[in-house]
Amino acid sequence: MAKQVIDAEVLANHKLNNKYFILLIKPKKKLELIQPGQFLQLTVPNAPEVFLRRPLSIHDVDYENNTISLLIQIVGKGTQKLSLLDKGNVVNIIYPLGKGYSNIEKGQKALLVGGGCGIAPLLYLAKVLKKEGIDEDIIIGFKSKEDIIEYELYNSIAPTFVTTEDGSMGEKGYVTTHSLFSSLNMYNKIYTCGPEVMMKAVAKRAKEAGVECEVSLENTMACGIGACLCCVTPTVNGHQCVCTEGPVFNSKELLW
Amino acid sequence: MVDLSVNIHQLTMKNPVTTASGTFGYGEEFTDFIDLNRLGGFIVKGTTLKHREGNPYPRMAETPAGMLNAVGLQNKGVDYFIENIYPRIKHYDTHIWVNVSGSTVEEYVAIAEKLNDLEKITAIEVNISCPNVKEGGMAFGTTCPGVKAVVSAVRKVYQKTMIVKLSPNVTNIVEMAKTAEDEGADALSLINTLLGMAIDAKTRRPVLSTITGGLSGPAVKPVALRMVWQVSKAVKVPVIGIGGIMTATDAIEFLLAGATAVQVGTANFIDPQATIKIIEGIEQYLIENKFKSVKDIVGALIV
Question: Which residue in B has a C-alpha nearest to residue A53's C-alpha?
């Protein structure tokens, strides 16, 4: 799939709560086919102090309307500036980047596990899996009820289960303490994205249960195309770029 | 039509724009975005004798006008390059140069010998200035005896154009440049990254795994311009300017300061089409200012 560098117009900026917002953008050319789990690199307009592009998971893709949506957490000056974008602003994107989640066969069952902003790539994945006739369950974990976003949306695609650390909604605890984790072997593959400590715990449980597990890593990036070698992660094959060999890795490849 | 061609030693480049080592991979990473044949040349990533895993993560820190890196010359070694990469990139109709790095003088020599016979590698860039490796690298480039040791040894075995990449982390860049020239360098490229560091105040820890790293981007441009200006006045061999070139205007400033050609580095990370825009911008500048050749502006600084 050829990568493109292209301008995209901001169609909407929905604030979900004080941490998260959704940026809906429309590239000025017909959308390339995007694999679930792939990402884009985006310039931060009107922010001369933000030097590099920002890598962002692709949250959803609408080929009919030629739009991409990005679920973004405000963590630093770049995402803060992005949260202020208005309809009509233009960003420059490079996409589609990286290797996404791999498919499973029809008739198999998938578990999608997301924590916090890590739920971002799982929406498009869930939609693609559903379209392909894959049976799936989703677990999303947050600190508290106030932090939960898009539960209804995920639940409209597949049965979605919630954990909160304070027990204010769903099961109390972490995603890995959810009761579904006591019967992991009913799944053929686990797809996960979230804080590294969470993904490590998910990968460990998957390994114990003998289930394939794909994790989506986050890393500080410069180029996003494998040229700078800044975003490496140690793997069984040595240091590999998260931007090109990932962001999705089979957990067996990682030195976790 | 203006003439964009320049000469580096015996080589003619179709235009003065090439890429800084470590910022352009093996060129292939950019083929979705640009036609590599349009470049004056491209320089592939730092190549060592043996496979190097590079430094641990984190390797990068953003700064307001640039970035710090601590990659540490991750590469699969010169034999891998010769066997696997060279056959894939040798068809490009532009200069392909290999940046060469070693921990010992003998390693530099061994790599240079291996690259001698590659027809389409028209020059090597001897990197005596990498700040991110413990042995060799910048250690050679910061003393005259160190520069002499590497450059004279490589000169004895390498028959084609030898470019020597200088470190800015020195008190007197001109001394290093003259030493490299005296020992047989055919061209000098400068500057490599400036040694810097970043601290996370929240965690009270350094951001980079190696604590210090190499600063690149617009932040280093004034230092680079100064060094290119000083060195180009002091040596007879051509100088290739590097340091924070993001636009055609930046490149033109380096040419005016005395650089015969330029390397675009960090800009490739932000805009993978930066090199082509810079070539087009230089051409436009020459037309608008009624210069027939890019050579007319090399060293044309009015002081």
Answer: B270
